Amino acid sequence: MEPIISIQGLGKTYAGGFTALNNVDLQIKRGEIFALLGPNGAGKTTLISIVCGIVNASHGKVTVNGYDIQRNYRKARNEIGLVPQEISTDAFETVWAAVKFSRGLFGKAPNPAYLEKILRQLSLWEKKDNKIITLSGGMKRRLMIAKALSHEPNVLFLDEPTAGVDVELRQDMWEMVRGLQDSGVTIILTTHYIEEAEEMADRVGVINHGELVLVEEKNILMQKMGEKELSLNLPEPLQKIPDALADLPLSLSGDGSQLVYRFDVKSEDTGIAEFLRRLNAVNIEFRDLHTRESSLEEIFVNLVNGARREREELLSKETQE
Ligand SMILES: Nc1ncnc2c1ncn2[C@@H]1O[C@H](COP(=O)(O)OP(=O)(O)OP(=O)(O)O)[C@@H](O)[C@H]1O
Fold first, then answer.
1. Residue nearest (by alpha carbon) to ligand 1 atom 28
2. Considering only CA atoms, which residue is closest to atom 30 of ligand 1?
3. Does residue 118 contact residue 99 with C-beta atoms inside 8 Å?
4. Which residue's alpha carbon is at the smallest distance from atom 6 of ligand 1?
5. Which residue intervals define the domain ABC transporter in the entry (predicted)?
């Protein structure tokens, strides 16, 4: 199936000469939830702003549902709903007037039945005659989503949808976003909360210093990059790791009561059987054991740090030459 968004060779150098995006290629699949992760200043907002036609690209090509964002700007923009990070609405307008107005901005014929559907879906229908100023923070966020959906876009961009939102509300938002996906909307979200990507995304893209360093199915990423730990609780604490086991990837907790064996998830042979056999040979007993997988957060930190190290090495080589 054709991707709903296709980005090729996208670059952006701002007027001052700063390059915020460098040769980005990315295809967004129809119906997926795609999470764009990256540290502050990585280029996430620049990328979204270009696709939404708010910022002009320096080079490259973007199509949204087949429409080129430059040659066919209006049609491309019609395909997209954008929920910005900041809540910006007229406080004295009613909820209903706000969504009706947003739809009108796109030149769409009125469709009260559709607006009712999205307000119900976002649990805002009861509040439709309320002034925005009377809504809670969570309701205002949902209203921003309703406004972004008012012209029936196929793609929804959510820029940091849950920044500064409490845990309960965050989970409500996740549920609601899944509901939108079920209704056929493709969702691209940027987030600083890796937990959010882990929870929600079908695929993850990591952007760092304007470069897309990785795009991967979330499950595959977690399998491929992840390390697992096998922890053994020892009835008798150890002073140190026995010399006979020194060649194994082991670590000992501070109080010596927990021995941790690290293994690579992707490796065919985890070495666990051999490890347990050798443990037995040196008469170390254990009370129980459990395993733990690395989180997307650890994977992400490793990736970004790895890329930074590579860049620093490259720079130091260049200065030596
Ligand atoms: N109008 C502009 N002129 C010059 N530089 C800009 C402009 N807008 C953004 N930048 C720079 O481009 C880089 C990328 O910014 P961008 O807002 O895309 O990052 P981001 O990944 O969205 O960051 P955050 O997570 O902090 O929102 C930053 O270094 C920023 O200072």
1. 41
2. 41
3. yes
4. 14
5. 5-234
What is the chain's Cα-based Rg? 25
Q: Is the ipTM of this complex over 0.90?
A: yes
Q: Is 200 helix (H, G, I), strand (E, B) or coil?
A: helix
Of the candidates 73, 18, 15, 6, which has an alpha carbon nearest to the alpha carbon of residue 42?
18
Q: Is 46 touching ligand 1 by the criterion CB < 6 Å?
A: yes
- Would the CB of 104 count as within 6 Å of ligand 1? no
Q: Residue by residue, what is the 3-state secondary structure of 141-167?
A: HHHHHHHHHCCCCCEEEEECCCCCCCH
Q: Convert the pLDDT of each residue in 27-84 to its tens digit.
A: 999 999 999 988 888 899 999 999 999 999 999 999 999 999 999 999 999 999 999 8
Best mutation site among 37, 44, 47 for ligand 1 pocket (most ligand atoms within 8 Å of CB)? 44
Whose CA is closest to 55, among 11, 116, 24?
11
Q: Angle at Cα 206 formed by Cα 39 and Cα 316, nearest 5°? A: 70
Element (H, E) at 32: none
DSSP state of 133: G
First to last CA, the chain: 48
Distance CA 263, CA 71 (A): 52
Tell me the one-letter amino acid at 251: S
The tokens describing 2, both together, are: 């054709």
pLDDT tens-digit readout, 281-318: 999 999 888 877 666 666 677 766 766 677 677 777 77
